[in-house]
Write a structure and sequence with these properties.
259 residues; six-stranded mixed sheet; four-stranded antiparallel sheet; 9 helices
Length: 259
């Protein structure tokens, strides 16, 4: 099943176009990486998929239906979103924050507790379970927020297919936790969850993505498998920089080296 179908989609909610003629398809179980400089439209593309901004042209189908047809509770059951900045200033415990991800579901306390333990293990937050969220470091808060959105779409039985939207998921994470998150994303994709991820780390994007789209000033410059998008020519056009592209010695995926 197609998780996302976009055909010549435009978004211009406040005047000048934020996005112009965006076209892509993403299957269930695939991961899409979005790259581009600051202000390119990466977050706007995520907001388009969540319905936070509306398309003003083209066709946008999410999980088999026009996005406008989705009711709020249906979106919450099938779509989890990690924004670039997660504001939470209440003194909740880490467990309470993570369990917020289970709110849309009626899976019962026993199942929710089992999922809680699994996502805490997947994000290395089990040792933080009783801590107060507002007292955590930036990296710890990011891992807790990741655990929360993972919990929302963790089970294939919750709804299938599922869609996970992530805006800079590895921000503030050290190298070990970045790798842990990437492993979790691969496992979620293998279970049938479609993933859309914005990141500035091109090598992390290359490691987990089946497709990459490159944006610049709201326009789609390139779209396709990592090896066709992560090229010196695309980097010159999108970022105005020269890079060297090599094959990773183990995965053979593109490895971006800035000069």
């Amino acid at each position: 099943m197609k998780a996302i179908q976009m055909n010549n989609v435009n978004a211009a909610p406040w005047g000048p176009a934020l996005l112009e003629n965006i076209s892509l398809e993403l299957d269930a179980g695939e991961a899409l990486g979005i790259i581009g400089p600051n202000g390119a439209g990466k977050t706007s593309l995520l907001q388009l998929l969540t319905g936070d901004i509306a398309a003003c042209g083209g066709e946008l189908i999410v999980l088999g239906r026009e996005l406008a047809e989705w009711k709020t509770h249906e979106r919450a059951q099938t779509m989890a979103v990690l924004p670039q900045l997660s504001l939470l200033n209440f003194p909740y415990s880490v467990e309470e924050v993570i369990l917020l991800g289970r709110t849309p579901h009626s899976s019962g306390r026993k199942e929710d507790q089992a999922i809680l333990q699994e996502v805490m293990q997947a994000t290395d937050t089990h040792r933080l379970a009783d801590r107060i969220y507002t007292q955590l470091s930036g990296g710890e808060k990011q891992r807790v927020q990741l655990a929360r959105v993972f919990a929302q779409i963790w089970r294939s039985a919750d709804d299938s297919p599922r869609l996970l939207l992530l805006d800079e998921p590895t921000a503030a994470l050290d190298l070990a936790h970045q790798q842990l998150v990437m492993e979790t994303l691969r496992a979620l994709a293998a279970s049938g969850c479609a993933i859309v991820m914005v990141a500035h780390d091109f090598n992390l994007i290359a490691a987990v993505s089946d497709q990459i789209t490159a944006l610049s000033a709201g326009r789609q410059i390139a779209q396709g498998p990592p090896e066709t998008v992560l090229t010196p020519e695309v980097f010159r056009e999108v970022f105005s920089i020269d890079v060297t592209i090599m094959a990773h010695p183990k995965t053979h995926r593109p490895l971006v080296i800035s000069l």
